[in-house]
Amino acid sequence: RTLPLLRHVKNPAIGGTNTTPSDAEIYEVLLAVLDELWRRNPRYELAIALRYGLVSKEQLPYTLDQVGKEFGITRERARQIVFQALRLMRRMTVHRIKIKQNKPCA
Predict the structure, then answer these.
(1) Is 78:67 a contact under the CB 8 Å cutoff?
(2) Least C-beta-crowded within 10 Å: which of 59, 76, 99, 104?
(3) Tens of pLDDT along 35-45?
C-alpha cells in the first residue's frame, strides 16, 4: 500500500511518474518529513510516532486515549494534535515532491 501523495514521485530510472514508489523512496520522504516535523513542533512528531506505532518495531500504535494520557490532555485534544500534525505532514510532503520534480511551489 502506498501513500496517496507519494504516487507522484518522479522515478528518474523510468523518466516518468512512478505509480508505485519504492520502499526506499517512501522511507526517505517519511524520515525527512518526520525530522522537519520534529524541528517545527516536537509534540506533533511524538504524537504521530505514538499514534502510528513508529517509536519501535515492538510497540503497537496508541489509541487517542493513550496519546492523551501521555501528554496529560483529553482524547479530543490528542485527536486535534494528530490531525494538525498530519495536515502539516501532507503540506511538507507535497512541497518535497514538487522540489524533487523541479516544479515551483505555491
Answers:
(1) yes
(2) 104
(3) 888 889 989 98
